[in-house]
Amino acid sequence: MTWQSPKGTRDFFPADLAAIQHVESAWRNASINAGFDEIEGPMFEHLDLYTVKSGEGIVSELFSFRRAGGDTDYALRPEFTPTLARMAAAKGRSLSVPTKWFGIPSHFRAERPQRGRLREFKQWNVDMLGIDSPSADAEVIATAIRALADLGLTSDDIVVRISHRDVVAKMLLDGGLKEEQLQVALGLLDKREKMPAEIFVEKAEEAGIDPSVFTPFDNETEASHEDLATLQHELKQWDIAEWCKFDFSIVRGLAYYTGIVFEIHEANGNERAIAGGGRYDGLVEMFGGPSIPAVGFGMGDVVLSLVLRDKGLLGDGNDLLPTPDVFVVSAGEEGDAAIAETVSLLRNANLHARRSYKTTKNVGKLLTEAAKTKATFAVILGEEFTRGEYVVKNLSTKDQVTLQRADLIEHLKS
Ligand code: HAM
């Protein structure tokens, strides 16, 4: 029997959680700032939701299960898009246009844990439904960039690599690929960067594909599609053109994408993708809803945290932990009897108040404890408290005043 956490999961101690919450609050602020409303769905879904349209890659990584004695197959959610499309479909014709939703769900994928890949992770999802034009694609990309910029990243650190499924397919077919090989070729292209060149050539030949059909993808960056021309114009409007480039080696592994697709990467190609997304115009209809265009992305916390730490933009979280407004200590029997009541008074006044649980009359020791918490003030229930007086010490300036109960809150809040 071992009592370790399962492989690929994380325990979040307070500082770890503070670091993740710092990232999440940049995500949430950027979403709200851009007019997206927050949603959440179930952590598990019917297995079929993923097998219909997510594609082989993700299906092979599902944690699936049945309840004891049951015969329905479920899966822990590996991504949010099918849930979101299902929720949109359930609203049917009452869905407003546009619908702008975001969420920060946890996801589960039975992948081999490695740098940037875990079995449980958080993913920020930003999705816009009902707008056919690439202006929506630009708006979701701009929202992603707003969050990254808030976290301290610049266009020198990050690149949004933008592509289009139709352009990629046309390039492959023009290069001599047979129509029936298209899905296999797209799958290969998606994984190309993750394997050595000779293995890639081997895999292409195994699939009966001439590896030379992939050569144009190394240097083709021209916008050769109406959607991309519109998108380029829109990206300029949002003033984010310098963060973005066209790169037709991006195809995305998920099967539901229909048009523009993109990935956000560290600019030097370090690490896996920070985010991935694109258009999935057919998915809501597939789940029984109206035919409605959609575009969005998912950004995971794991790779992003690695990139932020590497650039010195995210610490271990210790400096992000909340510090108390006031720390209460008692150095006498009257104080001991009144400490809980004092803390309660302060908390009721909306002050972040902590207390010492030590039983010592050594005020020096107690103040050392107070200073360790980085509290702004210490309230000392000492000698003076026998006369009903509170000693309040400002722990950074070391200024000290003796106050009556009636003046305590006002002084601490000033
Ligand atoms: P995805 O490319 O599968 O897309 O995932 C998006 C991001 O989630 C990745 O770029 C990565 O940062 C993070 N991620 C994925 N798997 C893992 C893992 N095992 N460990 C850590 N991080 C991971 C989707 O999931 C789409 N549903 C995104 C989307 C939303 N498309 C439209 N709307």
Explain this structure.
With 414 residues, this protein is of the alpha+beta class. It has two domains: 14-42 and 77-310, Bira Bifunctional Protein, Domain 2 (BirA Bifunctional Protein, domain 2, 2-Layer Sandwich); 322-413, Anticodon-binding domain (Rossmann fold, 3-Layer(aba) Sandwich), CATH 3.40.50. 36% of the residues lie in helices and 20% in strands. The chain is built from 14 helices and 17 strands. The protein has helices at 14-33, 48-51, 56-59, 81-91, 134-150, 165-174, 182-191, 197-206, 226-237, 283-286, 301-310, 333-348, 363-372, 405-413; strands at 37-38, 44-46, 64-65, 74-76, 99-103, 106-108, 120-129, 158-164, 244-246, 260-266, 275-279, 294-300, 326-330, 353-355, 377-381, 389-394, 400-404. Strands 1, 5, 6, 7, 8, 9, 10, 11 and 12 form a nine-stranded mixed sheet that branches. Strands 14-13-15-16-17 form a five-stranded mixed sheet, with helices on both faces. Strands 2-4-3 form a three-stranded antiparallel sheet. Helix 5 crosses helix 9 (226-237). The protein starts with 13 loop residues before the first helix and ends with a helix. The structure holds histidyl-adenosine monophosphate (HAM). Histidyl-adenosine monophosphate is lined by residues 79-81, 109, 111, 117-118, 121, 123, 125, 127, 254, 273-277, 296-298, 300, 302-303.
